[in-house]
Amino acid sequence: MLEDWLFHLALPIVAYTGIASSALALLSYPVEALFGLGGAVLLLLLIGIHNSWDAVAYHVYVNLPRRQAQANDSQSNK
Predict the structure, then answer these.
(1) Which of 49, 39, 45, 47 is nearest to 19 (CA)?
(2) The whole model's pTM is what?
(3) Which of 10, 28, 51, 74 has its CA 20 to 30 A from that of 44?
């Protein structure tokens, strides 16, 4: 539950805040701002990979056994 809140709310807010602050700092500190932007984009990439992995794991461990059970029930009823 905490992991869901972290990866769906807290970390994206941190990443988008980093992008916005990098945009504001671009004129004064261009090198540091680009490193901040790169870090924020990398964080968004890792969040996306994690959330995709969660979706695949859910479908494999929850939906697939449920569908197999329904298929077995429909075959045994015939």
Answers:
(1) 39
(2) 0.80
(3) 28
Return the structure tokens found at 38. Answer: 């790169």
Give the integer Cα–Cα distance in Å for 43 and 32: 16
The letter for the amino acid at 51 is: N
Taking the alpha carbons of 33, 34, 35, 39 in that order, is the dihedral positive or negative?
A: positive
| Measured distance CA(76)–CA(69) in Å, rounded | 11
Residues 6+ apart with CB under 8 A from 40: 14, 15, 16, 18, 19, 22
Tell me how crowded residue 15 is: count the other CB atoms within 10 A of its CB.
19
Please give the DSSP secondary-structure letter assigned to residue 51: H
Residue 7 contacts residue 51 (beta carbons within 8 Å):
yes
Q: List pLDDT tens digits, range 4-14.
A: 999 999 999 99
Q: Which amino acid is at 15?
A: A
